[in-house]
Amino acid sequence: MNKLGSICARGRPREFCTEQALARALEVFWSKGYEGTSLNDLTEAMGINRPSMYAAFGNKEELFKKALDLYEREKMAYIGRALEQPTARLVAETMLRGAIENATGGDQPHGCLRVINSVACGAEAESIRDEINARGKLAKAALIKRFEQAKSDGDLPPHVDAQGMTAVLIAMLQGISLQARQGASREDLEQLAATGLTLWPSA
């Protein structure tokens, strides 16, 4: 039995597996975006009716946030690995390669769920944009702190602007996601990352 099946088998029996249903909801949100996803899309993919969905996950917005939590745990673990790298360059390289893998890997939807939904423009998506932006600020602050530490360690020149470096890296990460969404190949994205790293400052 796989990990998901093992989780679903434990505890009080349910009419459906919440973990599996959430994973399916994530696929829909990732493929269609928050605004482009209807309740019918969700219930059909999850194999449940609306009352069951509301009882287990709440409304569409609450379901999206739970799906986003799952996405960050499973698909964005590379951020934590990146921050633990011994040099600032390896931090950036690990972030870029992780983003490429996430945006192009396997048969999953292309692009980054957070980036895709951060540019949603409808009124319905306003709270979702705010949620994604708040989470993005936490990641940005962690990167700035890491690059400031690299300056203190002598790994980066003292004149380097840690905030500016972080902004450039985030722009590259967003570009990878958007270009992947538009059909860019993995080779194209790897070339983009390699070119960007040639501009990385060294001590």
Secondary structure layout plus pairing:
Elements: H1 3-9, H2 18-36, H3 39-46, H4 50-57, H5 60-75, H6 78-83, H7 88-104, H8 113-118, H9 126-152, H10 162-181, H11 186-198
Short description:
This protein is mainly alpha-helical and 203 residues long. Helices cover 72% and strands 0% of the residues.
Descriptive report:
By secondary structure, the protein is mainly α. The chain is 72% helix and 0% strand. The chain is built from eleven helices and no strands. The longest helix has 27 residues, at 126-152. The chain starts with a helix and ends in a 5-residue tail after the last helix.
CATH superfamily of the largest domain: Tetracycline Repressor, domain 2
Briefly note the structural class of the backbone: mainly alpha
Question: Percent range for helical residues?
Answer: over 70%
- Overall structural domain count: 2
Instruction: Average the pLDDT over all residues and give the rounded result.
Output: 87
Relative strand content: under 5%
CATH hierarchy: architecture of the largest domain: Orthogonal Bundle
Count of DSSP H/I helices? 11
Largest sheet: none
Q: How far apart, in Å, are the first and last alpha carbons? A: 50 Å
Instruction: Please identify the oligomeric state.
Output: single chain
Instruction: Provide the gyration radius in Å.
Output: 19 Å
| Coarse morphology | elongated
Written as H for each helix and E for each strand, in order along the chain, the element string is: HHHHHHHHHHH
- Poorly predicted tracts of residues: 1-7, 9-14
Total beta-strand segments:
0
